[in-house]
Amino acid sequence: AVRYRKQTIDHERIASYAFAFDIDGVIVRGPETIPEAREALRMLNGHNKYNIKVPYIFITNGGGRSEKARCKDLSKRLGITVTEDQVIQGHTPMKDLVPAYKNVLVVGGVLDSCRKVAQDYGFDNVYIPLDVMKWNPSVTPYYQLSEEEKSVARDVDFSKISIDAILVFADSRNWAADQQIILEILLSKNGVMGTVAQDPSENHVGLYFAHSDFVWATDYGLSRYGMGALQVSIAALYQEHTGRELQVTRFGKPQRGTFRFAEKVLTNWRRNTLSEHVENLSLEDAGLSDSDDDDDDDDDDDSNNASESEPLTLQKDSKLSLELPPASTVYFVGDTPESDIRFANSHDSSWFSILVKTGVFQDNKIPKYTPKQICDDVLEAVKFAIEREH
Ligand code: G3P
Ligand code: MG
């Protein structure tokens, strides 16, 4: 094990446990930052009575902008530096669909914000509903494009384009128009606008949603309908039209795929945190026998005390490669029982779900999925978990 100087390890250590935070209803509510969030994150950055640094990531079902823009916003709100490899948005795992589809219709977000995100992910041909409405305004008879919308819409002949997949990246700003276009493509011959398949089963256009939140927390008193509600609506229309069940692939919480993705992100982030920590320390060569001399009463990196709060120690080879055990516990703090608590409870028993009262969950109701702990807000959740560990 690598040994490093006692004064440094006493000053700041890295926890073996970790945190993952939901964003809407935990860190923010619409444009407002939840006041306790700043202090909660400060504590995890080492400002706590144990001088321990706790790795953390964010897992939001939200999206509609790049991961980079999301980090910038979070960093500003929280007064910390959040980097891209700490953030998973609902549509982040959709990057993996790039090799599968050539022509995609991306739905949701402000103007063409989601087109840009999809292009950054590497999709070749990215179309948005505004392009379709510009191509033929009669597609949505009761909606006229504004000048601003016209300026971002592209000139495309959709009678000559075969849409391979529809990716709903973020909440729709225009349910009526988006539903009209999505259903037309799902009922079309090979994804071509203006055509109708003989039999709906001949249509192979993929339909993907970044998440399925029925409601979500904003700065309004009551929760607002989200992408899950749009899904219910589209499925009902499709069923009414065809008598068939709509086939949808879902991302986001509580889906297993997102969990696997989150575990990967968390492992990488913990590794980054740890190696950065080590670089900042004054290392002694592994195997030097005097390393115990300056340890005297410091048994923080010894293994005879197997408590959960034992900080991480490192295995070192000549190039400082790190052998990282999985986080002893991952505390997941969320506000929506159906997505967050279900997510944290379903996939791995080392995840510990904490439900807060600052978002969708209302204190007077029994949550549909039972959290391991309920806290007033994110700060109380962080304090609870740190105390539980030490
Ligand atoms: O559209 C955002 C949303 O439905 C929820 O976001 O951060 O609570 O997972 P979040
Ligand atoms: Mg939330």
From TrEMBL:
Q: Which GO terms describe its cellular component?
A: mitochondrion
Q: Which GO annotations describe the biological process of this protein? A: glycerophospholipid biosynthetic process
Skewed-composition ranges (Acidic residues): 290-303
Using the record for this protein, list the coiled-coil segments as residue ranges, or answer none. none
What top-level branch of life does the organism fall under? Eukaryota
Residues annotated as region Disordered? Answer: 281-319
Q: What is this protein called?
A: LAME_0H01904g1_1
Give the originating organism: Lachancea meyersii CBS 8951
| Residue numbers of the full-length protein present here | 155 to 544 of 571
